UniProtKB/TrEMBL annotation:
The keyword DNA-binding does not apply. GO terms for biological process: organic acid phosphorylation. Pfam families: Gly_kinase. This is Glycerate kinase. Keywords: Kinase, Transferase. The keyword Calcium does not apply.
């Protein structure tokens, strides 16, 4: 899938350099588009002839909708359930029959009222409501970004919004949230299966955690969502029970379709998905996507680069500027900046990065395909000021990048010394 952008031929833009700014957001400070605008202003101050094109990117977490909108998708507003059940104004991005859904914007930590965490009861239902709205509108391919979740419910809320029925031992509807899964007695997937007929779901996922265990959803991410050690154990046990019943329901359905009946092997169906890499993503939404949505999990940044037509937009570029709030070891493991650098490096285009702070030495940056990193803290050591007033600092970094990497500067030596 490619965006409509077509880079101008060099003959039409004169001798000026072409720079592509493909940065992720600076979390809590700037959107990816704001980063690009500030860098562009700095570059153009030094080299007015330069063509600077913005390509906002994301890795599947917050900012995914904004990146899709920048690529030409329409934003479709929807009112859906937030992680604690309150209604939130959110939406999905659509182009033709393709929809982009961002879990973080509806079931994420940023949607917790007053920031109050609810580790045992937070739900992914709203994400399922967005998918349902997209399917109802005629979308047949859903790209689901699952970073930044507030819940550890194994994706149970999501699949219930799509038609799955979850009952306790008394035949009553199960309560929302991960802790309630320990009381789950039966699962009915009939309506879910019907709803998803003819729909392809692709999940942008950058973690390889299994659903349960020491590196599972509860143990790894539960504390970030407010779970204490006892609650982590409670959630892990509930997720294991959820996986067992899902495996049984899937096995029974498949054996019934084959006319063999549900035997002792029914529960084993899906056992591999219980430990599958990525099953623990987003509090177990990865597991539900694999086991119940028939989804394909892929690296978030690679999916997003394809979504915005990034490879096409590299045509004729002389330099790529990528970035994110902090360059650190996590950057090297599937984050947006590393993905952009890999894609540009594959076609021989040099890459530099802008960031709030840089914790990677020169060798580690080189391993990621990044020639140099320019940090706000290089100019202003007060991190609080960098967060509060980043745009003037980013403009200055844009000037430095132009001086260091784009020839034919129009700045005087005195001006260069200032920046």
């Amino acid at each position: 899938m490619q965006a409509s952008f077509v880079p101008p031929p060099r003959a039409e833009r004169g001798a000026g350099f072409r720079v592509v700014v493909a940065s992720d957001k600076f979390k809590g400070s700037l959107t990816s588009n704001q980063v690009a605008v500030a860098v562009r202003e700095g570059v153009r101050r030094v080299n007015p002839d330069a063509t600077v094109d913005a390509v906002p990117v994301a890795d599947g977490g917050d900012g995914t909708l904004a990146a899709a909108a920048a690529a030409g998708f329409d934003l479709i507003p929807v009112t859906a359930s937030g992680p604690t059940g309150e209604s939130v104004r959110t939406g999905y991005a659509r182009r033709d029959d393709v929809a982009v859904v961002e879990l973080a914007d509806v079931s994420g930590l940023v949607r917790l009222p007053g920031g109050r965490q609810a580790p045992l009861t937070a739900t992914s239902r709203g994400t399922g409501e967005l998918i349902a709205a997209a399917i109802t509108s005629g979308c047949t391919r859903i790209i689901l970004g699952i970073g930044g979740s507030a819940c550890t419910d194994g994706g149970a809320g999501l699949v219930r919004a799509l038609g799955a029925k979850l009952y306790d031992a008394n035949g009553a509807d199960l309560a929302e949230g991960g802790a309630a899964l320990s009381a789950l007695a039966s699962v009915d997937l009939t309506a879910l299966t019907e709803r998803l007929a003819g729909v392809e779901i692709v999940v942008a996922c950058d973690v390889d955690n299994p659903l349960t265990g020491p590196s599972g959803a509860a143990a790894t991410y539960g504390p970030q969502k407010g779970a204490n050690p006892a609650q982590v154990g409670q959630l892990d046990s509930a997720l294991a029970h959820w996986a067992d019943l899902v495996g049984g329901a899937r096995g029974a359905a498949r054996q019934a379709e084959a006319g063999t009946g549900a035997g002792s092997g029914a529960r084993a169906v899906g056992a591999d998905l219980h430990d599958a890499p990525g099953a623990g993503a987003a509090g177990g939404v990865g597991f539900a996507a694999l086991a119940l949505l028939g989804a394909e999990l892929g690296p978030g940044i690679e999916l997003m680069l394809d979504l915005v037509g990034f490879h096409h937009q590299l045509i004729g570029a002389d330099l790529v500027v990528t970035g994110e709030g902090a360059l650190d070891e996590q950057t090297l493991h599937g984050k947006a900046a590393a993905g952009v650098a890999a894609a540009a490096g594959a076609v021989g285009i040099p890459v530099v990065a802008v960031c709030g702070t840089n914790r990677l030495d020169h060798d580690r940056l080189r391993e990621a395909g990044i020639t140099a990193a320019y940090a706000l803290t290089d100019l202003e050591p007060d991190v609080r000021r960098c967060i509060a007033e980043p745009i003037p600092l980013l403009r200055r970094l844009g000037e430095r990048i132009a001086v260091d990497h784009l020839a034919r500067s129009t700045m005087t030596p005195t001006e260069r010394g200032v920046v």
